[in-house]
Design goal:
0% strand, Segregation and condensation protein A, flat, 3 helices
C-alpha cells in the first residue's frame, strides 16, 4: 500500500470510528435523573477514544496542510462581534 493509500485508509477509518462512537453516545443518552445504561468507566473510555481520534485527525490535517482551526458554531450560542471604537464613532457622527 502506498503512503497516500495508507493515509486515505487511516482517514476513513478514523472518520468511521468517530461517527460510530458519537452514534453510541447519542443512542444511549438518557433524560436527566435516569440511570445511564453505560457505566461511568465506559463513558470515559468513549470520551478518551474520541479525543484520540480527533487528535489524530487534526495531526493528519496539519501534515497535509489542510487544518483550518475552525470550531463548530451552535445555533443557540451567542456570538460576540468586535468592532473598533473609531468605526463606531464614524457611524454615530
Amino acid at each position: 500500500m502506498s503512503n497516500n493509500n495508507t493515509q486515505d485508509f487511516e482517514t476513513r477509518l478514523l472518520g468511521a470510528v468517530r461517527k460510530t462512537l458519537i452514534s453510541v453516545a447519542k443512542d444511549t443518552m438518557t433524560k436527566p435523573g435516569l440511570r445511564h445504561p453505560l457505566t461511568q468507566d465506559t463513558q470515559k473510555m468513549i470520551t478518551d477514544c474520541l479525543d484520540i481520534v480527533v487528535s489524530r485527525q487534526v495531526a493528519i490535517e496539519k501534515e497535509a496542510g489542510t487544518h483550518t482551526k475552525m470550531k463548530p458554531v451552535y445555533t443557540d450560542e451567542q456570538t460576540v462581534q468586535s468592532f473598533s471604537v473609531d468605526d463606531l464613532k464614524k457611524t454615530l457622527n
